[in-house]
Design goal:
With about 600 residues, the protein is α+β, with helices and mostly antiparallel strands. It is about 30% helix and about 25% strand. It binds adenosine-5'-diphosphate and magnesium ion.
């Protein structure tokens, strides 16, 4: 057996580097944290070749006194804690004293630093952990730390680096996190000589988020603020449900000022949105959690990106509740928005002209087809033999007479909402959510009751799915057929589509179908019933989007079909489909009453 020896300190540093220094982005993170810990309010970062050639950060922080400079690179040397008790109440980003020696062991480091008012500053160069230069320089308060040739002496590590673009992207992602948590600081990022980020100090979080997410986002930000118990404050900004992304990358979580990655708390934020965002999509958010320092352990991960909470479940539920309260208020009209929990009384429903309402959730009554597209002035729905009944035409003449609006019956507003009159009231529907509701009920009917008809495509269409999609598709093939797809697996990972449900826009079948399968897979993964999940996904993806211009006939078709639904007042995700404004409402608004 080989002799048991203590490892030389060089080797220990390299091993530590394995934990702390994974790629240029992780170096950037350590440098930013050090600068912020030093009280810097200006952080100027330059990278070259994705950070592999150069990472240089200049700050205006406290600087380091000449006699302390070498200490900064000594293993487990830190100015931030000194005794065991301090570990329980860590208020700085760093405290392990590992980063600088680890970084210096796998690169060429040059530091220039001076404290405010000092007679001289210090320049030190360390190559692969060995000091090669130490000299006084002219003082400039603050610190510049340049990391050159990262991993030059650990070729194996260097090989693991991804492309320059990919390393760049990681650096920008990290930098953005710190840009959020220190929104009062000015930050600059240059890559290969080109300025990528230039954020002057912002007065508030909203200002910083606007820079980060784009200038127009301001009006779509919702403030979150709560103080659920002594020693716990949760605050920040989230986006309106209409603004979302297909990933969690824009969810920023700060715990006592430290950016952390916590899937469970991200989930709490997402779940606060409930069904106002489609499954598989996430809001943009910056949430700060300030809690008693003893209620969170930051020392569970060498890079300190994960933390452990004394009471994670409580925190989860509080965040979820706060977000729910902040975002799930009717964002459209304050007037008579029909929300799920305040469904209209039967009396109110009866104001809508009577019609055949299917009795069960899956419908035993008649469903009309759902395609709103009208061509050549001809109604293009396939009714499975059921007569179209234009409920809108049945409005009692006296009600109609109250309005003489120049012949038009429907108005499309902002290519998003459709306004019509019925029963002496203004009705506004959201074209997307309304159509979603229509398609959802039609799809449920196809799945549970009567299979949908199929429209043959002009040419068979074949394309590949990824493995995950293919597994899900094959498992649920019969459901797709009931919806009206003429489809079959082809080879190990492709499908051939010969026919689609009538409401599927035939010009983009592949895209629609992929989105459909994806949305379906997402809902399945949350344990939803396959039929409901498929119906919701098909509705979501095949429904007309906002931005599409509708003809009079299309708008009429949408109104009719919506009010033929069992639950006309909300889309499958719970968003409202209709609001009404009555004469009384207007009179109240204009203070005539
Ligand atoms: P830690 O941050 O855990 O203390 P580091 O190895 O990252 O350990 O840094 C070691 C020490 O160097 C810090 O405790 C700090 O005193 C000093 N230091 C590092 N970077 C800076 C900086 N930009 N400005 C001032 N002091 C710094
Ligand atoms: Mg540090």
């Amino acid at each position: 057996m080989a002799e048991i020896k203590k490892l030389p300190s060089h080797l220990i540093d390299k091993i530590a580097a394995g934990e702390v220094v994974e790629n240029p982005a992780s170096v950037v993170k350590e440098l930013l944290e050090n600068s912020l810990d030093a009280g810097a309010t200006s952080l100027d970062l330059t990278i070259e070749k994705g950070g592999t050639r150069l990472i240089s950060l200049t700050d205006n922080g406290s600087g380091i006194a000449p006699d302390q400079v070498r200490q900064a690179f000594a293993r487990h040397a830190t100015s931030k804690i000194s005794q065991e008790d301090d570990l329980r109440t860590i208020a700085s980003y760093g405290f392990r004293g590992e980063a600088l020696p680890a970084i210096a062991s796998v690169s060429i480091v040059e530091m220039t630093t001076a404290t405010a008012g000092a007679a001289e500053g210090t320049r030190i160069i360390i190559e692969g952990g060995d000091e090669v230069l130490f000299e006084p320089t002219s003082p400039r308060a603050g610190t510049t730390l340049a990391i050159k040739q990262l991993f030059y002496n650990t070729p194996a590590r260097r090989k693991f680096l991804k492309s320059e673009t990919s390393e760049n992207r990681k650096v920008v992602a990290i930098y953005s996190k710190y840009a959020v948590c220190s929104y009062g600081s000015s930050l600059k990022l240059k890559s290969n000589g080109k300025e990528i980020i230039n954020y002057p100090a912002d007065n508030d979080l909203a200002g910083r988020l606007q820079r980060l997410w784009g200038g127009n986002i301001g009006s779509r930000l919702i403030e979150v603020e709560g103080n659920p118990m002594e020693g716990l404050r949760i605050y920040g900004m989230v986006t309106h449900p209409g603004i979302n992304r297909g990933n969690r990358n824009q969810i920023y979580l700060m715990v006592n000022g430290r950016p952390v990655y916590d899937v469970s708390l991200m989930h709490a934020i997402r779940s606060g949105y409930g069904n106002t965002i489609d499954s598989g999509y996430f809001p943009l958010a910056a949430i700060f959690i300030e809690l008693d320092k003893t209620a969170v352990d930051v020392n569970v991960h060498p890079a300190k990106t994960e933390v452990r909470f004394a009471n994670e479940r409580y925190l989860y539920s509080q965040i979820r509740k706060l977000i729910e309260a902040a975002v799930q208020v009717p964002a459209l009209f304050s007037v008579n928005s029909v929300k799920s929990h305040q469904r209209p009384t039967p009396g109110k429903i009866n104001k809508i002209p009577p019609r055949d309402r299917p009795q069960s959730a899956v419908g035993s009554g008649k469903y009309h087809d759902d395609k709103i597209v009208i061509r050549n002035g001809q109604n293009n729905h396939h009714h499975n033999g059921v007569e179209s009944n234009n409920k809108f035409e049945e409005i009692p003449p006296e009600a109609e007479e109250q309005f003489d609006l120049g012949g038009e019956r429907f108005w499309q507003l902002y290519n998003t909402f459709v306004m019509g009159f019925r029963e002496g009231k203004i009705w506004m529907i959201d074209q997307h959510t309304a159509h979603e509701r229509v398609l959802y009920e039609a799809a449920l009917n196809n799945l549970y009751e009567r299979p949908g008809t199929s429209q043959r495509l002009l040419f068979d269409l074949s394309f590949e799915l990824d493995t995950q999609e293919m597994i899900i598709f094959e498992k649920h093939l019969p459901l797709f057929e009931r919806l009206g797809f003429e489809i079959e697996p082809f080879g190990s990972n492709a499908v051939i589509i010969r026919g689609v449900p009538g409401y599927f826009e035939s010009s983009s079948v592949e895209k629609l179908f992929r989105n459909l399968v994806n949305g379906f897979a997402d809902s399945l993964s949350t344990g939803e019933d396959p039929m409901m999940a498929l119906a919701a996904s098909v509705a979501c993806h095949a429904a007309i989007k906002s931005g599409e211009t509708l003809s009079q006939e299309q708008m009429q078709g949408l109104f009719n079909r919506l009010f033929d639904c069992q639950e006309p007042y909300q889309c499958p995700h719970g968003r409202p489909t209709v609001v009404t404004i009555s004469r009384e409402d207007l009179e109240k608004i204009f203070k005539r009453r």
